[in-house]
Amino acid sequence: MRKIYLEPRTERSAFAPFLVSMLAVGLTIIAGSGLFLIYDKSPIAGFHAIFIEPLLSSYGIGEILLKLGPLLLIAQGLAIGFRARVWNIGAEGQLIIGAILASVVAIYFDGSTSSLLLPAMVLAGALGGMGWAGIAAWLRTRYNANEILVTFMLSSIALQILYYLVTGPLRDPQGFNFPQSITFSAAATFPILIENTRVNASLIIALVVSVVAWVFMQRSLMGYKLVVGGMAPQAARYAGFGEKRAIWLALLVGGAAAGVAGVGEVAGPLGMLQRTISPGYGFTAIIVAFLGGLHPIGIVFSSLLMALIHVGGDFARLSVGLPSAVTDIFQGLLLTFYLASSLLLTHRLRLRKSDPAFAVGAAE
Amino acid sequence: MTATIIFILAGTLAATVPLLLAAMGELVAEKSGMLNLGVEGMMAVGAAAGFVTVALTGSHALGLLIGGLAALLLSGVFAILSIFFMANQVAAGLAIGILGLGVSAGIGKNYEGTTVAPMPKLPFGSLGELPIIGPALFSHDVMVYLAIAAAFVVWFVLQRTKLGLIIRAVGESPQSAHSLGYPVALIRTACILFGGAMAGIGGAYLSTAYTPLWADGMVAGRGWIVVALVVFGTWIVPRVTLGAYLFGAISLLELSIQGLGLNVPSQLLSASPYIVTIIVLVVISRNPALIQLNSPMSLGQTYRPKG
After folding, report:
1. Taking CB atoms and an 8 Å limit, are B95 and A335 in contact across chains?
2. Are residues A149 and B224, on separate chains, in Cβ contact within 8 Å?
3. Structure confidence at residue B289 (pLDDT)
C-alpha cells in the first residue's frame, strides 16, 4: 500500500515559494466557487467578473494600478519587519497619520506653486508614519510592551484623531460643514501618470521602494542583521546585532512606507483630507506581504493580484451582484490557504510504500 | 447623580460580559501555549451568527449556541493551521481574524440596521426594587451572572483540577508533556476550540443582548482589547476578570460623560479604551518579572513533535 508522507526538506527549494503561492490561489478559487454557489451566483461568471473584466478596459487597469501603489508600498515596508518577526499590524494608522501631516503641509502652504511642496508633503508623511510606528518601537524597546497590540491600538487612535481634525481644525471653512479639508492645489497633488486614469506618480515611489527593498534584503549586511536579529535574538545579541535596533528599524521603515502611502491617497485620487482615506490598505498589505513570501519580488506579484481582487470585487458587485463581503472573505481565505500551503516550504510530499520507518516524523 | 451611578454600575456589568467571556476563552488557549490573535474575527462571526439565529427563531439561548458554534468552527481553522500545518501563530491568528470579519459581514449582510428583542431580564421580584442595588445589580439577563460563573469555573479548572494541571504543563513545556504521554496536539486543539466558543458566545451576547441591533463591524476592537486583557491580567484568572470589568466601565465612559454634560471631544472618548489599553500594557509590561513569571513558557511557539 502506498501512502503520502511529509518529509522535512534538507535544503530550500527555489521553486517552492512560487508553488506555494500558486497553490494558495488555486485553493482559494476552489473555496471561492463554493462561496459563489452559497450566494446563488455562477462561479464562472463570478471569477470572470473578478479576474478578467478589470483587465478588459483601460479604466479597470487604471484602477488596478491605482490600488497597486499603496499595497505594494506598505507591504514592502511591513515585510522587512515581518522577516525580523516584528509584527506591525498598525500600518493603517501610520497611513492615516502620514496623510494628516502631509495634509497639514498642503493646507498651510495652500496657494503655493513651489515644486518643493509635494516633496515636502511626502517627507512629512514619511515622518508622520515613522513617528506613529516609533511610539510602538519605543514602548516595545523601553517598556517591553507588545508591539502587535500597541500598533493595533494606535491605529484605532489615529482614526479618531483624523475624525477630530476633519470635523474641526482642518475642516474647510467654506465646506458647508462637510467633514473634509480644502481641495489641494495642483502643486500639492501628484501628476497623473497615464492619461484618462487616476494613476498618479506616487506609483513610481512604490516601484522605486520595491527595488530598494530588494537591494536591502538581498544584498546588504543591514538586511541580514535584521533577519537574524528577529529570528534568533540570542544569537544576534551574541554576534553583536541588537534586537532593539532591529525593532526600531523594522517599525520605522514600515511606518515610513505606510505614511507615504497615505500621502499618495490625499495627494492622489482624493485631493483632500477626509474621513475615509483608505479602504483598509494597511490591513490588506499584511496579506500581500505574506502571500509574496515576504520577498520583495514576490510582493510585486502578490500586490498586483490583491489589487486585481480589490477592483474585481467592485466589478463583481456591479455586474454579478456579489456582496462586498466576498472580497474580504477572499482575502482571509488567501492568507489561510497560504499559511497551510507554506508547510511545503519546509517539508515535501513523498509517495512511499507503507513503511514504519518513515511513519515516524510524518505530519500528525 | 444616583441615576448616573446606577447607570454606570448596571452598564458595566452588562458591557463586561462579552469581554469577560472572550477573555476566559483566550486565557485557556494561551495557557496551553497557543496565542490566537483572531479573537476580533471570532467575536464578529459569533455576533453575526447569533444575531441571525435570534432574528429567525426568536430564541436567545439558540442564538448564543449557534454564535458559539460558528466561532468554534473558525477557531478550528486556527488550530489546523497552527498545530497541524505548523504555521506561525501570529500569522494564523491574523488570517482567521480577517476571514472572520469577512464571514461576519457576509452572514449579516441582509440584516444591517435591523433589531431583535433583547434577552429577557431575570425575575428578581422584590430584590430588584431595592434602592440603587436593585436596578444596579438585579436588573440583568442571566448571562451577566453566568459570565462571572464562567470565570470562576475557568479558575477552578485551571488551578484545582488535574485537567488544569495538564493544560498548564502543555503550555509550559509541550516537550515534557509529550514525554509524559499527554496528547499535546489534542489538548491544545481543545483549548483553542474552547477559546473560539467563548469568543463566539461573547460576540453573540453583544449583538443579541447588550446592543440587540446588527451593524457590520459592531465588535469594534473588543477582540483586541480581550487579547490585551489576558496580558494585563498576567494570565491569572481573577486579575483578568478585574481587568475586564475595568474595561467594561471604560466603554461606558463616553455615554456617562455625555450624560454629565461635560464638554470633551467625542473622538477623545472613543479613543479612550485604546489609550488606556496602551498605558496599562506599558505599566504591566515594564516589570519583566511579572510577565516572565506568569506567561506560559511556550506561548506562541510552534511545537514540532519529534518522533
Report:
1. yes
2. yes
3. 82
Among B26, B40, B42, B81, the residue to mutate for chain A (most A Cβ within 10 A):
B81
Query: Domain spans of chain B?
Result: 2-294
Residue-level pLDDT at A359: 45
CB < 8 Å to B182, chain A: none
- H/E element, B19: helix B2-31
Q: How far apart are CA A144 and CA A140, in angstroms?
A: 4
Total residues belonging to chain B: 307
Question: Minimal Cα–Cα distance from A258 to chain B, Å?
Answer: 19
Classify the complex by whether its ipTM is higher than 0.90, answering yes or no.
yes
Rounded to whole angstroms, the Cα distance separating B153 from B137 reads: 21
Q: Count Cβ atoms below 10 Å from residue B51 Cβ, excluding itself.
A: 30
CA closest to B229 among chain A residues: A149
Which sequence spans correspond to the domains of chain A?
67-291
Q: How far is B27 from chain A (nearest CA, A)?
A: 16
Class of domain B2-294: mainly alpha
Best of B84, B278, B290 to mutate (most A CBs within 10 Å, chain A): B278
Per-residue pLDDT of A56-98, as tens digits, reads: 999 999 999 999 999 999 999 999 999 888 999 999 999 999 9
Q: Is the dihedral of CA A270, A275, A279, A280 positive or negative?
A: positive
pLDDT (tens digit, 9 = 90+) per residue, A211-225? 999 998 877 777 777
Q: Which residue has the higher pLDDT, A143 or A246?
A: A143
pLDDT digits (tens, 9 = 90+) for A112-164: 999 999 999 999 999 999 999 999 999 999 999 999 999 999 999 999 999 99
Asked if A151 and A136 count as a contact pair (C-beta separation under 8 A), the reply is: yes
Chosen for mutation from B35, B39, B84, B267 (greatest number of chain A CBs closer than 10 Å) is: B267
Residue type, A99: A
Query: Would you list the DSSP string of B196-250?
Result: HHHHHHHHHHIIIIIS-B--TTTTTTHHHHHHHHHHHTTT-HHHHHHHHHHHHHH
Residues of chain B neighbouring A87 (CB-CB closer than 8 A): 90
